[in-house]
């Protein structure tokens, strides 16, 4: 019971140290996520309603004047896949995690201050795990904030009954992936306690790689039309399979195959093109979270193992 009390004190101390940053980045997460999801809102036509979670394209044509109105060019899943649950968010979260890894772990190890926590009658293993948990709690607050906003917007979508469960699973996968990513960075830091500059350079290279692969795939390949024959950058599709963000299990992965439905509603001719979900990797939707938890537990164990055997100068 006493140990549990000390554990809470150590965890609370680290979170109090970071509360201003948590508040600042929490507000940024709220506004950035809300702005991105608002971008996916549909401007309703006379007979078209929105928004849609699915990748979908709808055109509305009036026989009266021949005008053609285009809608749903940006679906909610498109914004989530292309911006919120990929490199831009991972880049920012990675920077935040690295700052706190430097502050909570590397700085205290190099100054010998980390051993002062042992006066709380806790082991080395508990000290390092509590510090990593504190960093992950900060990460968790931000990713949960993003996820709640995304789920609120998606719950209002026209096709929420069909896809909302996948949105929830996607949020869960993204949260777990970020915890794994942060813990792996912490493990790398523990192997470079005397080479802080090299650690920070390594993280910078990883985050730059994240951004470059995202830019080449989503901005260049997808932005130029994807698999269409006219796209001179079709070869960049392969970048997706070499990117770190591809390890995020995506339940809202839509293919380029679609079904077209044509309807006449009053004086309007409505063409709806609905893209199909990628069913090839459905097994990953359930295996992915289990794999994340396994890697998270293993990485946490390695962090504790490394720190308990480290020589620290007081």
From TrEMBL:
Keywords, in A-Z order: Membrane, Transmembrane, Transmembrane helix
Domain of life: Bacteria
Spans through the membrane: 21-40, 83-106, 127-158, 164-191, 198-220, 283-304
Keyword Membrane: yes
Keyword Transmembrane helix assigned: yes
Entry protein name: Uncharacterized protein
Species classification: Bacteria, Bacillati, Mycoplasmatota, Mollicutes, Entomoplasmatales
């Amino acid at each position: 019971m006493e140990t549990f009390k000390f554990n809470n004190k150590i965890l609370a101390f680290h979170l109090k140290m970071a509360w201003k940053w948590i508040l600042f980045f929490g507000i940024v997460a709220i506004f950035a996520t809300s702005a991105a999801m608002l971008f996916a809102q549909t401007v309703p036509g006379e007979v078209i309603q929105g928004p849609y979670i699915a990748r979908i394209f709808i055109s509305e044509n009036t026989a009266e004047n021949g005008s053609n109105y285009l809608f749903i060019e940006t679906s909610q899943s498109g914004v989530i896949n292309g911006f919120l649950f990929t490199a831009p968010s991972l880049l920012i979260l990675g920077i935040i995690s690295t700052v706190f890894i430097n502050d909570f772990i590397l700085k205290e190890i190099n100054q010998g201050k980390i051993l002062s926590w042992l006066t709380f009658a806790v082991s080395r293993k508990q000290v390092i795990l509590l510090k990593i948990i504190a960093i992950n709690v900060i990460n968790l607050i931000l990713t949960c904030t993003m996820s709640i906003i995304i789920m609120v917007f998606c719950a209002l979508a026209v096709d929420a009954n069909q896809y909302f469960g996948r949105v929830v699973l996607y949020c869960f996968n993204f949260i777990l992936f970020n915890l794994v990513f942060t813990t792996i960075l912490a493990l790398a830091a523990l192997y470079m306690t005397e080479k802080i500059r090299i650690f920070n350079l390594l993280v910078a290279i990883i985050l730059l790689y994240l951004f470059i692969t995202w830019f080449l795939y989503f901005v260049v390949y997808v932005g130029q039309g994807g698999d269409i024959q006219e796209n001179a950058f079709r070869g960049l599709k392969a970048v997706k399979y070499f990117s770190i963000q591809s390890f995020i299990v995506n339940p809202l992965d839509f293919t380029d195959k679609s079904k077209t439905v044509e309807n006449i509603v009053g004086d309007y001719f409505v063409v709806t093109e609905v893209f199909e979900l990628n069913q090839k990797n459905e097994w990953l939707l359930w295996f992915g979270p289990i794999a994340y938890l396994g890697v998270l537990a293993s990485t946490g164990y390695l962090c504790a193992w490394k720190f308990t055997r480290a020589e620290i100068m007081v």
